[in-house]
Every structure is written in structure tokens, then in C-alpha cells.
Design a protein that fits this description.
single chain; 146 residues; Glutaredoxin; two-stranded antiparallel ribbon; 29% helix
Length: 146
Amino acid sequence: MTTASTHLVTCPSCLARNRVPDARLPDAPTCGKCGKPLFSGEPVAVTATQFERHLAGELPLLVDFWAEWCGPCKAMAPAFAAAARTLEPEVRLLKVDTEAEQALGTRFRIQSIPTLVLFKVGREIDRVSGAMDARRLIDWARARLG
């Protein structure tokens, strides 16, 4: 359970869970298990297993459900990467390839792509479909997270 002063952060490299004091989130914390950075300022491409591990963490997640063949998905990729540079470490940005991870697409009823889904404490709090520029994406996420 989250305390007022720490977050449980999943390492994008080894999937270990790390308890990080809120005050240290902006200080480029590293994983206690593998020593790699917990935040890179880039979206993290995940499998279903990796997604579940991040979902069980305590950081809000902004997930881009996309596919390689999708033109709007490819067009939005640079904006999503720019949003990661701005939103981390307060929000973890993940990318789920709906072709490779069809069960996740089905589970979250993804009917069009790109679809962005925002999770807080493991629960979906909002979603939007369609490509967005970085500023609109950042503003949308921040407004929903309060």
C-alpha cells in the first residue's frame, strides 16, 4: 500500500519492485536489484506479463494500445515519447502492441487504435481514442490524474 511519502515502482528492465521516496523520484533513482535507471524518459514497450507487473505498481500508467500497421499510431509515436519525457517520473508510459498482445486488447475492449488508457492504483480511470499531439496528451493525462 502506498504511504504518503513513497511509491512502489516497477523496474522496466528486470521488473523488480522498488520502494522510492516521493522526494527521490526526480533524482534518477536506480533499481535496487539490477542497478539500471527506473526512469528513462521513454515509453516502455511491454508484453502482457510485463504490463501486469507495472499495473501492480503504484505509479499511474498511461498506456498506448497501438499496432505496427496503424498509420495514426506511428504518427503519434513521437508525441507519446515527448509526453514520457515530461510526465515521468510521476506517470509511467507503456506501449502495448495489440497484434502481439491480443489478449490485452480484448481484455480492455480496444476497438480502435491508437487508444490511450490511463490507470491509477491498477484501475482504469479514463481513455481516449485517436492520435494526439504531445501537449494535448500531457494536458489530458494531468487533468484526469488531478
